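Slack export, channel: ligand-projects

TW: morning all. Re-posting the request from yesterday since it got buried. We need the structure predicted with the small molecule present, not the apo form. The ligand is 2-acetamido-2-deoxy-beta-D-glucopyranose; the SMILES is in the block with the sequence. No rush, but it would help planning for next week.
GE: picking it up
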Amino acid sequence: MHEDKHIDMMVTEKPNSGGVIFMGYFTRPSWAILLLLFALITILSLQISTNSVSPLRVNTGPSEPHIPVDKSSCAGFFGESPERKTVMSITDFGGVGDGKTSNTEAFRRAVRYMQGLGEKGGAQLIVPKGRWLTGSFNLTSYFTLFLQEGAIILASQDPEEWPIIEPLPSYGRGRERLGGRHISLIHGDGLTNVVITGQNGTIDGQGRMWWEMWWNRTLKHTRGHLLELMNSRDILISNLTFRSSPFWTIHPVYCSNVVIKDMTILAPLNAPNTDGIDPDSSTNVCIEDCYIESGDDLVAIKSGWDQYGIAMARPSSNIIVRRISGTTPTCSGFGIGSEMSGGIFNVTVEDLHVWDSAAGLRIKTDQGRGGFIANITISNIKMERVKIPIRFSRGSNDHPDEKWDPNALPSVKGIYIGNVVSLNSTKAPVLQGIKNAQFEGVCMKNVSIIGIVSSASWHCEFVSGYTSGVFPSPCPQMQNNSSSSWCR
Ligand SMILES: *[C@@H]1O[C@H](CO)[C@@H](O)[C@H](O)[C@H]1NC(C)=O
Ligand SMILES: *[C@@H]1O[C@H](CO)[C@@H](O)[C@H](O)[C@H]1NC(C)=O
Ligand SMILES: *[C@@H]1O[C@H](CO)[C@@H](O)[C@H](O)[C@H]1NC(C)=O
Ligand SMILES: *[C@@H]1O[C@H](CO)[C@@H](O)[C@H](O)[C@H]1NC(C)=O
Ligand SMILES: *[C@@H]1O[C@H](CO)[C@@H](O)[C@H](O)[C@H]1NC(C)=O
Ligand SMILES: *[C@@H]1O[C@H](CO)[C@@H](O)[C@H](O)[C@H]1NC(C)=O
Ligand SMILES: *[C@@H]1O[C@H](CO)[C@@H](O)[C@H](O)[C@H]1NC(C)=O
Ligand SMILES: *[C@@H]1O[C@H](CO)[C@@H](O)[C@H](O)[C@H]1NC(C)=O
Ligand SMILES: *[C@@H]1O[C@H](CO)[C@@H](O)[C@H](O)[C@H]1NC(C)=O
Ligand SMILES: *[C@@H]1O[C@H](CO)[C@@H](O)[C@H](O)[C@H]1NC(C)=O
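GE: finished. pasting the full token output, ligand included:
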């Protein structure tokens, strides 16, 4: 929004400021120059008016569709909610929204029925106002799940209703426990054209039972996500509230063309591993206008774990994250890793607002991860009371099994961080690269970390880069001019 306004202003001011420059230059204009100026202005305004009214212009591109040039919208990744020919309610499949009756079979019946409608114009399943208790169910293609205002899907408290599925090949095992993992509450594999939206209805994972199993060490298999889509494309998730996921909330993995926008994602601030949105080995992902508060990273980009992620070699790329705000007291606003073994590149993060958090921007990797992180651009970041606003860190010996390769070192190259203001922070940037795998081409411009003691110094290890306009003054490793080519 703010950015749009700025661009508009610049466009409308252009002819004016041009004029101002002319007048300033010719301080004592002669008649001839004034005439010339008058002629110039006349030509200019004529051009402007012909441009806006000329019928020629309308005719130049006869069949060219009007594509709005709106840079700050995810529309280019996957369009607005497509119309579906068949529209039915969960009540048509025997659903009961009393908060007590199980709707697991109703949802599964609905999806089974709608599976056949993909070729016939697609289908939309409406969840009306009410409390709809359910176990896990799968989605289908050319399908919309629509939660009307006041609709609440409540996750079953019976772990058996979250059956065990195969681990992800890029992880080799469940992320938390060996072997398989609990399926997500809402799940999809190999789908095309799926929309999950509504009038700010809620999907509530009722995750407390799972967090307690994690805390009291009785968890047998890795916890399920609130929503996981695998091997899918053309996905839109919007205008809903997701609450209390057992584990990472939204997990697109091996997906492409994914839009996640206008979402509210909430979990208690101490709920373990309740990341907001984790694009994983996915490409063309656009995340915008979300409010997230949770017990782990608001948004974290991943791409597989150690030797399994290296073998699968499925990167996360072409990702936009913008206008995200929120808080996570123990983790970071925006994170990369620590699982990044398939590679992560071409990521743009902008207009982030993070407060009362442990870290603002964090890159996590480690020995054994392999893979690479490249071409990451982060700008316009506002933070308040964030302990370590910018942090690159090594993991803490977090490997899938004994077979990880100590020689698999990640390559981190080309990280741009600009226009950052952090108020009431505790620490200057902490940049810890990896021995024999120095992070290179790290560029920071216009970064102000305010409210720390004036003697606070950067902590830099195995990192090299370029800084300009940063406060407090950077470590020597970040005053390297030769790597400034990455800085625009
Ligand atoms: C949902 O899909 C998974 C695989 O993605 C499968 O294992 C499971 O049986 C499916 N569940 C239902 C109810 O069809
Ligand atoms: C989003 O939800 C709000 C609140 O229910 C509703 O008024 C609005 O129309 C929805 N927007 C879209 C694009 O569906
Ligand atoms: C949607 O609901 C959540 C939770 O009640 C609320 O915080 C949020 O402001 C609502 N969003 C919109 C767009 O109304
Ligand atoms: C651990 O938490 C789960 C979920 O709340 C509970 O069912 C179980 O009894 C607890 N186990 C122990 C040993 O406290
Ligand atoms: C980077 O990703 C954006 C989308 O986020 C895409 O438009 C652009 O073409 C990509 N750049 C390259 C060099 O692939
Ligand atoms: C990163 O960007 C540079 C310069 O645009 C390009 O040459 C390089 O191929 C990119 N690397 C990756 C992994 O995208
Ligand atoms: C520096 O960053 C701040 C915060 O994003 C921004 O308000 C300011 O305009 C930037 N200054 C320059 C010269 O770009
Ligand atoms: C920063 O700390 C000062 C002093 O404690 C306080 O007055 C101010 O409101 C704080 N600002 C923010 C943005 O937290
Ligand atoms: C940057 O400078 C450091 C010394 O501070 C040096 O070790 C490193 O090789 C330089 N990096 C580049 C890319 O030139
Ligand atoms: C590095 O850049 C600074 C400022 O841009 C300049 O003053 C200095 O001479 C440069 N150092 C080298 C070795 O080029």
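GE: first-pass observations. The two ends are 24 Å apart (CA to CA). The helical segments are 2-25, 31-53, 55-60, 104-115, 208-215, 306-312.
TW: perfect, thank you
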